[in-house]
Amino acid sequence: MFRLILAIVFIVTVFADCPGNSVQWPRTSPSKCYTLVAEKATFNNAEKRCIANGGHLTSVHESFTNSFLSIEANYTKNFKSDFWLGAKSYNLPESWNWTDGTPFDFNEWKSPPSSGAFCGAFDIRSGLWNAVDCKLKKSYVCKNDEIANTGSTIKPTKPCPDEWMYFEETNSCYYLAGTPNWQTTEDLCKSFGAHLMSVHSQSEVNFTKTIYNGDMWIGLYSKNNPIDWNSTWQYTDGSTVDYINWKNYQSHDSSQCVQIHTFQYNHYFENINCSTLNYGMCKKPSVTSHPSPAPITSTTQISPYCLNGWFYNVNTSSCYTVTPAVNWTQSEEFCRFNNAHLTSFHDQNELNFLSNTFIDNLQYGHLQSMWIGLYSADNETTWNFTDGSPFNYRPWNHGDPYGTWNNCGYYDIVFNKLHAGGCGNNDNNGICKRLSIM
User: Which residues pair with 279 in a beta bridge?
Assistant: First the structure.
């Protein structure tokens, strides 16, 4: 893989890779190198060994990395039960930190940590974490940055002013502004030669959350009043509205301004009253020229056939994306709002595409179980897809469906099996499907 960074009149080619004994994750940059060490050590000694190799015990910031670690550990020789993460509590049981200094913004505790157990271990079988005695000896996982080898020693031009943060995917600079209302924040951004942030992918949202992990204004707004499902939304910087991830769309009121809302480790769009006091994220182009696009994985095709944030399947001529973590009915409503339905499928190849796509793209999901468009209107006697296509391929998990008013279908993307569940009981991500735009 490579990145191109242009500096004045020089071109510097950067090759990023991981050592042979480690695994790159995610598959495309920016990514990290994970080294699974079967040799057992105490927590402190494991951390020292990771530091000696330029890294730290691994931190985990979302559920797809958690699933990745579970899968890798289960297929790694001599990883038998659990291994050290970089999670450590230095005082109170409810106060945890990562040894690499990143925010402790995600957890998968099996049960609430108790006093006297100050180090985090990852249970391979369940994928959940336990707080245990730091003096126990366990296998461990180190996390390092990719190794970059350049063909030149010329340093690139600094892409952003001081106190602004650079994001290579968008070639833009970001700055967190104070806590006024939406219009005042937009005016402040303009004084910096910027606008409130436009958002064009989930990875851009994830990046901004490394700057500020809380609710914040973005540049999305509507002139319609009242707001309804047919309202038109636009960005203050004039860019295309090609990615929206609503949590609760507040229709039939006057909430014309949009914030990114933090909710249970996920981040959604939410339209609220413009006079609300909030932080805001300013965004402006960097001083460097545009970088080359990130490479595309073999299982995920981002193409002109789909909107940004949707993934194209050449075999079905369809586009796919994910919903917020809500119940089945709300997931289907979300898909319909985006001119889609919860996904249907008609062979194992399509299911493999779904599994590979949404495992490889870590920004998505909270659970490995994802809603699909399968439902029963007669207590599991017959099953149909919401898009009206035939239910002609049925890889049910053993024992499903089992006739207890579990009338909605979900798909386990790790084990490639269908399950029947209660339509309103669980909050899962769902997969939307729509025909391509070309």
Answer: 216
- Are 177 and 189 a contacting pair, CB within 8 Å? yes
Q: Are residues 319 and 423 in the same domain?
A: yes
Consecutive 10-residue averages of pLDDT for the chain (438 residues) = 28 51 74 90 89 88 81 76 89 74 87 80 88 92 71 50 82 82 88 90 82 86 78 88 71 77 70 88 77 36 62 88 80 80 92 78 52 86 90 86 78 83 79 82
**Residue 5 covered by a domain:** no
Q: What is the dihedral of CA 219, 221, 223, 224, to 10 degrees?
A: 170
Residues pairing with 131 in the sheet: 120
Q: Is residue 63 within 8 Å of 106, Cβ to Cβ? A: yes
DSSP letter for 246, please. B
Q: What is the pLDDT of residue 364?
A: 39
The 3-state DSSP class for residue 356 equals helix
Domain of residue 220, CATH code: 3.10.100.10
- In contact, 218 and 257? CB cutoff 8 Å: no
Can you list the positions of beta strands (E) in 303-413? 311-313, 318-322, 341-342, 369-375, 384-385, 408-412
Q: Give just the sign of the alpha carbon dihedral 183, 185, 186, 190.
A: positive
- As a whole number of angstroms, the distance between CA 430 and CA 332 comes to 8
Residue 343 has a pLDDT of 95
How many domains are there within the chain?
A: 3
Other CB atoms within 10 A of residue 225 CB: 11
Tell me the C-alpha distance between 137 and 74, whole Å.
Answer: 19
Same domain, 191 and 125: no
* Beta-carbon contacts of residue 118 (< 8 Å; ≥ 6 apart): 88, 89, 90, 131, 133, 134
Q: At 254, is the secondary structure helix, strand, or coil? A: coil
| Number of Cβ atoms within 10 Å of the Cβ of 52 | 9
Check if the beta carbon of residue 37 is closer than 8 Å to that of residue 64: no
